Amino acid sequence: MSRLSTPPRTSPAAPASRPVHDASFVVYGQVAEPATLTVSHLREGWEQHRADVVFDCATNGPHTFEGPLLRDVVTNAGPTFDPRRRKDRSRFVLAVSGGDSHHTVLSWAEIDADFRNTPILLATRMDDLDLDSAGSQLVVPSDRCGARYISAITSIWIGSCAVPAWGLKDR
Question: Could you say which residues of the chain have pLDDT below 50?
């Protein structure tokens, strides 16, 4: 159960300095512009969205998350598919890893506006607290259970999913 919205914009203030322990993660794989991003980069570089989330299988919550859409951030890296070809985009996956060794896989079609268009967040704030030193968190507000919730993101790999070799032998 979730509600996603864009928080009111305030006039941007020039950051005085980055927090000493601003956690970072890498965006890499089949992309034109691999990047290392921090929570501060996510907060300053993309439109922030807000989601009130309750994971039915968790005993704590609800929580409020804020951050940019995963789609906006990874699109900025320039995935190497042909954006005009839906079939090309639908072969791509994203593998998101966290500092606690948890990881999950999402299909590009989940976040693509021509397919599912799921608003998935890279949270920069949780319950009105900045996550600069804790690291960004992957939040899929539409998930009933938070199994794809990844804390302290360390990497986002983007690439195509090839047909397994064993599948080709049967043809």
Answer: 1-19
